[in-house]
From TrEMBL:
<dbReference type="GO" id="GO:0001786">
    <property type="term" value="F:phosphatidylserine binding"/>
</dbReference>
<dbReference type="GO" id="GO:0009408">
    <property type="term" value="P:response to heat"/>
</dbReference>
<dbReference type="GO" id="GO:0005886">
    <property type="term" value="C:plasma membrane"/>
</dbReference>
<dbReference type="Pfam" id="PF00191">
    <property type="entry name" value="Annexin"/>
</dbReference>
<dbReference type="InterPro" id="IPR037104">
    <property type="entry name" value="Annexin_sf"/>
</dbReference>
<dbReference type="GO" id="GO:0009414">
    <property type="term" value="P:response to water deprivation"/>
</dbReference>
<dbReference type="GO" id="GO:0005509">
    <property type="term" value="F:calcium ion binding"/>
</dbReference>
<keyword id="KW-0041">Annexin</keyword>
<dbReference type="GO" id="GO:0009651">
    <property type="term" value="P:response to salt stress"/>
</dbReference>
<dbReference type="GO" id="GO:0005737">
    <property type="term" value="C:cytoplasm"/>
</dbReference>
<dbReference type="GO" id="GO:0009409">
    <property type="term" value="P:response to cold"/>
</dbReference>
<protein>
    <recommendedName>
        <fullName>Annexin</fullName>
    </recommendedName>
</protein>
<dbReference type="GO" id="GO:0005544">
    <property type="term" value="F:calcium-dependent phospholipid binding"/>
</dbReference>
<keyword id="KW-0677">Repeat</keyword>
<dbReference type="InterPro" id="IPR018502">
    <property type="entry name" value="Annexin_repeat"/>
</dbReference>
Length: 179
């Protein structure tokens, strides 16, 4: 019987090296976002021990490149650098920056990926949850609604999934088919 961290390492490996070249980014997001930073560290150690490779390097080596890779690397930096302490002030500032990330263009709406990735990489998961809650409180709608129908780029779709998972992972798991 394998321990939970080894199991998650195997799930990550299978998500990256899935048959037919399809990467299961949603499973990777669940591992990166749905675990405490101490557990995530143990998953990374188990991955390296079991497969003699670094999880982050395997994710970055996925071809063709995908927006999920950028988001996963931001979360990886976040997991390593920050504690679970949360600040309402930081949440308000980040919510305001997220609101301002969208700019009207002649083709509709565009997200400033750099700002979003900076926030994702510098904040803990609990801080991000608070930020998205504050965003909803201040602006009267979720961050994903801010660009839901206005843009359909790869980054925006990936970000939409991540934010939905962050805000309410039990709701996400309730909708996912078990296999």
């Amino acid at each position: 019987m394998i321990n939970l961290h080894e199991r998650h390492a195997i799930v990550a490996k299978n998500a990256i090296f899935k048959e037919r070249g399809c990467v299961n980014y949603k499973a990777l997001i669940e591992i990166y976002v749905g675990r405490k930073s101490s557990h995530f560290f143990l998953i990374q150690q188990a991955y390296q021990s079991k497969f003699r490779r670094h999880l982050d390097q395997d994710i970055m080596s996925i071809e063709p490149p995908h927006s999920y890779q950028k988001i996963l690397m931001a979360f990886s930096a976040s997991q390593m650098a920050h504690s679970a302490d949360v600040s309402v002030h930081i949440g308000k500032c980040d919510a305001q920056r997220l609101f301002q990330t969208g700019e009207a263009t002649s083709r509709g709406f565009k997200i400033d990926e750099g700002v979003v990735l900076e926030i994702l990489s510098k904040r803990s998961i609990p801080q991000l949850k608070l930020t998205f809650s504050i965003y909803m409180h201040i602006y009267g709608h979720s961050y994903t609604k801010h660009f839901k129908n206005k843009c359909h780029g790869e980054f925006e779709e990936a970000l939409r999934f991540v934010v939905k998972f962050l805000k309410n992972s039990p709701k996400y798991y309730a909708k996912v088919e078990l296999y």
